[in-house]
Design goal:
Helix content: 25-40%
Largest sheet: 4 strands, antiparallel
Number of helices: 2
Order of helices and strands: EHEEHE
Strand content: 25-35%
Shape: globular
Strand order of the largest sheet: 2-3-1-4
Structural class: alpha+beta
Number of strands: 4
Distance between the termini: 29 Å
Radius of gyration: 14 Å
């Protein structure tokens, strides 16, 4: 039995990206600055920051207008290249 194909994303679309890393004071700014290089200014209403219960980790969720797979791949690679990002979802 073959598995069904995942649905294709139709671009442009609203696309949430969740980034996790150490809870340093400038982490959310770093994430937003990197992402804005690929998608322009980001509305503050599209940004959600949450600290872990222990305060060690921070997750930054940003909803962007994604224009294509290349853009998303470039964002993921740039975020990981900072050396401060533990996970990108």
């Amino acid at each position: 039995m073959t598995e069904p194909e995942a649905p294709k994303i139709e671009f442009p679309c609203a696309y949430p990206i969740k980034v996790m890393g150490d809870a340093k004071p400038d982490f959310s700014d770093l994430v937003v600055n990197v992402m804005s290089e690929f998608c322009g200014p980001i509305d503050p209403q599209d940004i959600r920051v949450k600290l872990s219960r222990t305060g060690k980790w921070c997750s930054v969720s940003v909803t962007i207008t994604a224009t294509g797979e290349r853009q998303l791949q470039a964002i993921f690679e740039a975020l990981k290249a900072t050396g401060r990002v533990q996970m990108v979802l």
